Amino acid sequence: MSTAAVLDRAVPVTRRRRGGWSWLRGVAITVVTLVFALPVVWMFAAAFKTNVQVTDPTVGLVFPPTLENFANVLADGAILPAMGNSLLVGVVSTVLSAVLAVPAAWAVGRFGMRSTGSLVLVARIVPAISLLVPWYYLFAQAGLVGSYTVLVLSHMFVSVPLILWIMISFFEGLPVELEEAARVDGLSAFGAFLRIALPLAAPGTATAAVLAFVASWNNFMFALVLADENTETVPVALFSFISYASTDWGGLMAASALMTVPVVVVALLAQKHIVAGLTAGATKG
Amino acid sequence: MQSHSVDRSHRRLRWMMLAPALAFVGLMIVFPLLFTIDLSLTDAFGAVNAGAEHVGLQNYGDALSDGRRFWPAVWRTVYFTVGAVVLETVLGLALAMLMRRAFRGIRWVRTVLIVPLLATPVAIGILWLLILDPTNGIANQLLKSVGIAPLEFLGSVSQSLPTLMVIDVWQWTPMMTLLLLAGLSTLPEEPEEAATVDGANAWQRFRHVVLPMLGPTIATALVLRSVDALKTFDILYATKGPGGGSAFEAETLNVLAYGLTFDYQEYALASAVLVLFTLFIIGVVLVLRRYAGRGAA
Asked: What CATH number should be reported for the domain holding residue B161?
């Protein structure tokens, strides 16, 4: 029997097997999706419950919603300024990190300097606290603790390696021929970067920037130590909410929901890019 | 020669592009690391400008002979990391195999999987505090409805760490799944088709064809996840507070180092713990890189 004939016979066999199992696969995927989705759904539901409903486990996902918790959170005076702080620190640290990291990633991706890439791995390995202790020590002596500058610098410690990591594999995936053609047409290497590579890298840069912003938005430890009451970010504000008002579940869930909404929006709009960014560099081994 | 000068200008350019980022990373990592090592050899304590004297390796001796806080924290770190990462790898692989072939609605499933990865760990921690509240939480309500006795979860000394492990599994299994799906998408089709022709069933194809080819991706994913799991802080601190609870039941090395530094101002001892912790993480990475790829293959 020829190979082609064997394959002809083999294909329907696999198809039939898959068809027989597909309902089971559908059930499994549905169950898994619910396991990952329901806790987050529960958070959003609890945000719209009264404080009596939120601690009554017999109240499920169907109830008359109230905006009371959001009103309380916004009136509290801590969460709203903290959101402003988080936004400011997130945007500034992301933009500065991209300015530093994108050209560096291009240089590594184009000229193949993998040893620099391993420095990124070092940045990922080192526990952030072991940097936080000296930073705190030095910044406290310089009287800088509590300033936006310190927060931005500390968040850049996460964002620069993150953007480097994602953009190195992005630039490696871009065809080098376009830049070479531009060089032949008289552009300098830097010109080729600026006019050819950078525009082509816009989707990758956007993805890396979004992930860097999310990392900053979520960062808890740095702000816990380096921020004061005027510069505290949302996770820290949320944490002090637990300590001082541990019974206000509705308020806590409303504040948590407000924090999570931007993330859900990003996940809905750009899931393909986000997945590419999260898994960048993982398949090279 | 022209190509020679091009080479030189190339080299100059790439250093100009690299230098700012390298300088930043160096200043923010290398210098603080050296500072931590130096601090670990002193008796720094209390006010940050109090001045300190070098006392040799005394802090390392103190840490390594501390059976009350240090060693239990080491074991908790190991227990939490091994438990969480093993579960995440097995479940993540199973889920990746489920999602390998496209299906209707895969977009939505992927979106649902991303949310735990991007959501704020502190908010996630608070959410699980509510879900797992021993008296008012939905978790015990669900257990009751299927006839299981209620659990204390984060309210108990013995159940805290396993509970936190499960939360970590909920939050990070999607990361494993996405990494492994990326790896699966790069695999060639032919070996599996050949195995099918040879009469291999689905399990045999998975065990003897897919798994060995996926080895390098699994190894990379294991390294990335283990490093992050070892350093878990936010969710532990947000749910259990300073010291990991009244009996230190969720105090891992990271939480211990944080507490020593910022709750007790034991800068020198904390630095020694951190140096040991960093060496430990580096050791884990080296061992995993050396053996994980081979073990999976």
From this structure: 1.10.3720.10
Residues in chain A within 8 Å Cβ distance of B274: 127, 129-130, 133
B chain contacts of residue A43, beta-carbon cutoff 8 Å: 123, 127
**Chain A CB contacts of B98 below 8 Å:** 25, 28-29, 32
**Per-residue pLDDT band at A113 (split at 50, 70, 90):** low
pLDDT for position A43: 93
Provide mean pLDDT across the span A209-224. 94
Domain-embedded: residue B233: yes
- Tokens, residue B32: 């603080």
Angle between helices A3-47 and B121-131 (to 10 degrees): 80
CB contact under 8 A, B224 and A122: no
The answer to whether position B1 is within a domain reads no
What is the set of domains in chain A, with CATH numbers? 78-244 (1.10.3720.10)
Per-residue confidence (pLDDT) for residue B177, from 0 to 100: 96
Confidence of residue B297 (pLDDT cuts 50, 70, 90): very low
Residues of chain B contacting residue A6, judged by C-beta atoms under 8 Å apart? 197
Q: For B270, what's the count of Cα atoms within 13 Å in the CB-facing half-sphere?
A: 26
CB A197 within 8 A of CB A174: yes
Do A239 and B238 make contact, defined as CB atoms within 8 angstroms? yes
pLDDT at site B6 = 59
A26-43 pLDDT, tens digit each = 899 999 999 999 999 999
pLDDT value at A90 more than 90? yes
Say if B28 falls within a structural domain. no
Name the burial class of residue B202, with classes exposed (0-12), middle (13-18) and buried (19+) by CB atoms within 10 angstroms of its CB. middle
Average pLDDT value for residue range B165-169: 96
Q: Which pLDDT score is estimated for A18?
A: 52
Nearest to B196 among A14, A160, A284 (CB): A14
Going by C-beta distance under 8 Å and a sequence separation of 6 or more, which residues neighbour residue B18? A103, A104, A107, A108, A113, A116
Beta-carbon separation of B39 and A137 below 8 A:
yes
Structural domain boundaries enclosing B47: 41-296
CA–CA distance, A215 with A213 (Å, rounded to integer): 5
Q: Residue B168 falls within a domain, yes or no? A: yes
What integer pLDDT is reported at residue A4 of this predicted model?
Answer: 42
Band of the pLDDT at A12, cuts 50, 70, 90? very low
Nearest neighbour of B99 by CB, restricted to A29, A234, A266: A29
Total domain count for chain B?
Answer: 1
